[in-house]
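User: Predict the full complex structure for these chains.
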Amino acid sequence: VREFTEHLRRVYASFPMTPASDFSDIHVDIRHPKGLRALIRPQAVFAVDGTMPFEPYPAHSAMPLFEWGVNWYIARRMNQYLLLHAGVVADAGRGVVLAALPGSGKSTLTAALMLEGYRLLSDEFGAVDLASGSLASVLKPVALKNESIAIIRALSPHACFGPTFPNTRKGDVAHLAPSEPSVLLRTQAARPALILFPKYERSAPLSLRLVTPAQAFARLAFNSFNYQTLGFEAFHAVSDLANACPAFELGYSGLDEAIGAIRRLLADEAGPAALPA
Amino acid sequence: MPPDLNEHNLLRVLRKPESVTALTLREWDEVIRVARQGRLLAMLRYRLEAAAVLPFVPPLPRGHLDAAGRLARHRHQQLRWTLAGIEESLRGLDCPIVLLKGAAYVMADRSFALARMPADIDIMVPRAALDRAEQALLDAGWIAQVTDPYDQRYYREWSHEVPPLRSPDGLFELDLHHTITPPAGSPRLDADSLFAQSIALPGSPWRTLASVDQVLHVAVHLFKGSELSSRLHELVDFECLLDVASRDPDFWPTLRTRAAELGLTRPLWYAVRFTQRILGKRLPRLSGEGSPGWPARVSMHWIVTRALLPDPIDCPVSLDTRIARTLGAVRYHFLRLPTHQLLPHLLRKSLRRTLGLQAR
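Assistant: Here is the predicted structure of the two-chain assembly.
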């Protein structure tokens, strides 16, 4: 699918090609379905492990199909990790988990942090290694929706975007390429240092509320892709995480303010006690 | 070109788990994908663990094996939970309830049970209690999966089970059996004796088939009740059951006698034969009992060694495999229905599919 190849090259530009002799976690095939349909309005299908879990898409929107398909597959299969529904960025090896329900501005804030120089690990999966408790990078382009696209574009002239796909089933979608340092460091894990529950609210003042480990546990566990599947292993991983790092609910309307607050939280060596509750 | 079973990486690893130490990452890539397609990823992990070679698996493929093991563990928990619900729904029935296949292995704590990925639940009740059992499950919120009247009738008249039911939470499909083979196409099997020889599971309301009957059930399910396509995992089940059951010195003689009694010597012969040929297992010879004539033997060998294996990756399914699968399907239908009923049945099915009406 020609358009797809082009789009993929653009947003995955910094990623090296994997040699054929290597092991790959996922094998995805994006192709035109068979038949005469190709002549009229070409479509693209997503195939993984010999199955085609989704209906075909118009060929020009193969990129969002690919991104969603891969996310779907990771969420279903990658039980190597506890998969929190969270964006993750890191600063000097210290990971910030931004856990939130869809629509709370998680991807937007994650993208803004990346453009501020934080290393991106994922905008979707907080992948916790079950043995070590560290955060693994599940690095893919950041999927931005609707108004977020213009907001993030305005933040940095260097942001590398794929095309905007209007009116997909999740509204307008555009993919932001991960920054080069994020790609270079993608095999390095980060130690979790801070848990945030970001909540975007139009014209709300910046607010920061301490979340107890017990509350953080519940909010992380019940917003995870595979907490149930992993059973007791997930219980231990989430409770270790909730006990190890301070957690806050972050209400914001301005990205600058939110980023400033996160910077201060990370810089504050005194820990949660010294911060406003 | 005939498939070279010795060149098949997944088969080699299943046969000789120690051989994984020689696999390159590229080969691991293929083994993991083929095993996943064949529903054998958790089984692969189990065998490697049993052979103490799991630590030699490189981290990336190891992650996928562990992930599959976790998923299987989770499915078993769901299975136990769902069975507890079924037990409650069927409590008033006052008849023996026999767990078949996966559910039986799990509840009897078979060591290999955790290595299987349970897809559906099979239970068997006496024919006389069938309608009441079905109704009790429907009352408990199980959902009938087949609503078309023709298909409903097909199940009830020509099948050994009622149309499948889906659990209220959608986790499992349940096949409610009254015997283990379709009633048509061959001499009727004595279901009463299956119940008579069944074994109570201590501390539970469930029963399982006698261990020889469990073995025969897998054989008959695979070589009579399936289209053979991509069913390698069922042959592996057969092998696992034999491993457990044959620790009893009387097992083989009992198995032969029982196969003859139930009229299942042919499927047993095939199951033993292909466990030897495909999985490279050493098994006692079945001196001619159930052996088909040479034309059937040759053609079945041709079909099974192609159709049974999971799809290859990154290349289309070869023409001879496709032919083998079609033949496997044709064979299945002929075994299931008498010809004068089979032809109208298939005609009706294909017409309906062509006309785009809903068909299952």
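Chain A is about 35% helix and 30% strand.
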